[in-house]
Amino acid sequence: MSTLRHVTPVEQHTMSQLKLVAPLAGWATRLEEVPDPAFAQRMVGDGIAVDPTSAELRAPCDGVVLSVHASRHACTLRTPTGAEILLHIGIDTVNLRGEGFTVHVREGQNVRAGQPLITFDMDLLARRARSLVTAMVVTNGDAHTITGRVEDREVSVGELLLEVQGGEETHPGEVNGTTAERHVRLLIPHGLHARPAAAFARHARLHPGPVNVGHKAHTVNGKSVVALMSLSAQHGATLTVTVRGEQAEQVAQELVDLVTSGLGDPILPLAESPAAPVEHVRAPVAALVPFTPDTEVLLKGTIAAPGMAVGRAVRVIEEQPELTRAGRGLLEENQRLTEALSRVRQDIEAMISREGKGSAARTEIFRAHLALLDDPELADAATQELQSGYSAEWAWRTAVEKQVRVLQGLKDSLLAERVDDLRDIGRRVIALLTGKGGSRVPAELPTDTILVADELLPSDLAAVPPGRLVALCTAHGGPTSHVAILAAGMGIPAVVAMGDAALRVPEGAQLIVDGDRGEVHVHPPAAAREATLHAIAARASRREANLARAHEECRTADGTRIEVVANLGRPGDAASAFAKGAEGCGLLRSEFLFLDRVTAPSEEEQTAQYQEIADGLRGQHVVIRTLDVGGDKPLAYLPLPEEENPVLGLRGVRVSLRHPELLRTQLRAILKVKPTGVCRILVPMITSASEMRAVRAMVEEERRALGITAPVQLGAMIEVPAAAVMADRLAADADFLSIGTNDLTQYALAMDRGNPHVAAQLDGLHPGVLRLVAQTVEGARKHSRPVAVCGGIASDPRAAPLLIGLGVTELSATPSVVPDLKAFIRTLTLPQCVEVARKALTFESGDDVRALVMSTWPGL
User: Fold this and answer.
1) What cofactors does the UniProt entry give for this protein (predicted)?
2) Catalytic positions, please?
3) Following CA atoms 605, 607, 610, 615 in sequence, which dihedral angle do they give, to the nearest 10 degrees?
């Protein structure tokens, strides 16, 4: 046990010098190592962190307790020199809502160095919190400076840790200008804790005049993290923001907008009726008239997994069970819910165990379901409902729908698709509680089953016996949903977002599902079914032959070198892509590291993941796209303003240049991957050469700082028409160009690809889009820069001769299509591709272009 050495008041602060001792034992580390940007980026203030080995937080000096957070995980002291010291136990411990903490002091109490402040349950925190690392920071750093610190070694309780120089804060003189006041509702689930308080204070400090925040009878300095935390403002509180000085109205509105957006935390809208769960409402199925058997119908949707299939429709109907609202006592209902959760957990664990290493994506999805079952927010919400007298099933559904509203409130299309996973877990638990069984899919299925549903859930597919399912199609859902990922992993075609017309498909109807075109034929004639089956058999034979040659270099029949590489979205994809013959990675979507979490990934974590991908590709090049978020893909830990037109707002490189430290961390992580130079850097949403030069400057600075002498290839992603038109200027500052045809198509055609009303009309082979590709290649040629295509049409064989004819030399495709794509390219000649591409540019529609390609190469 450590012996506490008491530091006397004279030792603690001589004149304006303050000495702070270790508040607990452990490993002293830099704030940059704390897995929370509020601390790591010094948004809260400067200081030190300790990874604790003792479970009692003690006062680091003499002082007065300014505040103890409502969740008991943090407290603040004011020293005789005026420094305000925040002591914050663990990361995301606010989520525990006080569980595991015991406070020994009260606000306004005088304490001496070494006096116990808070004790905590280390075992509980280790299980429930993201980290035990405890931060000690000086929050009023404008008046105090850290002149010495102990770090990167073990420390004992009471050992000198920080030296702080400074005195009482200076106060500004008279402020000219106007006064603006705004009222705003706080919708952060855990209230104004350290992270959102730091975000608010950081923005408030940009204003030279006073900023105050009021809650109930208290008003504090809005530039002080500690003062904001002392308000103890919880979810639903109304804050009054008052700003004085020049542009007060504008500043006040900006601060209110930040609070409304969550200050980097997710928001939880106030429940309109907290007792009643919100239902997942869809169009009444009974009101939809089934298609008549004697009429062929063509339905169009969004491609979720490629391929073709012929089979019979098996309808998956969602039945909402009647739930008993009133419980039979807290103990009994709590026991029922605990047993149901345990049973579902066992079922999922058994499925993962059976899966083994067969499908990394499938295993990851169901591990995510296990994490949802253990989510403390979900458990707390259900417990509150049980304590209010409701039944286990009613409490669980209420808790699930409350969390669903949180995700939907984030206005993130990717997180919105994760809502289905949450509903899946909710449905499985309720099915057990109500005795309605597990899966919605019938136990007995024919061997040519095509599932047709409003939406499908991962547990639906997990329940299907092997060899029974040949395709699936849904009225709703997205191409990046977990069900779409599972379908691709199972090798079955899938078409989603077909609209309510999909619900008119009758049980047992004959279907042809074309996952390559995003089409479903209902009641096709016998001849069409037979022709499709022959085509599927022929395709299977060709694929076997193509796979055998997949690792050979790809050249056209007349010798033109075309690199066929893969689009990747996670480390597990790399080995599969290599096995399919991919010659590298043309687009690594690095968002997998940043989404679905509350803090940014560390430099070390990123490097490890990138290295795993590079290793999986056996030294072939990896093009890593820098973080492409913002707009319709916000991050919980990155405060950005809410936007009416998010796809036209802060996203891609615009976000990176607005938050350069986030970008620099990613650049360093990429540069550290071995062998040096295996990774190339691709910058998304470029619209001007100045953006490229700004990123290039950062790359060069970080490269020199790491002692790397070899040059680093930096590319510009062409996703907006302006970039295509200005390709000659961009190519002067970029080593290569890569065309993202998905975004380029939506911007060129003014059709939001997330809008179900127009998504089906998006056509990457529209002559207008192809002309932009041609302009990009022409601009790149002026500087001898290569051009790649990494968007959706790179995976479409019908697009390959057009892109090659326009001068594209690299196609980055979905790994599964690589063998077939390489085989088809080997049959082409460059003059023929050039001729067809030039003719396509003169047409009026994408359909005309396809007809031209199909007539030239009938076997497609």
Assistant:
1) Mg(2+)
2) 482, 790
3) -110
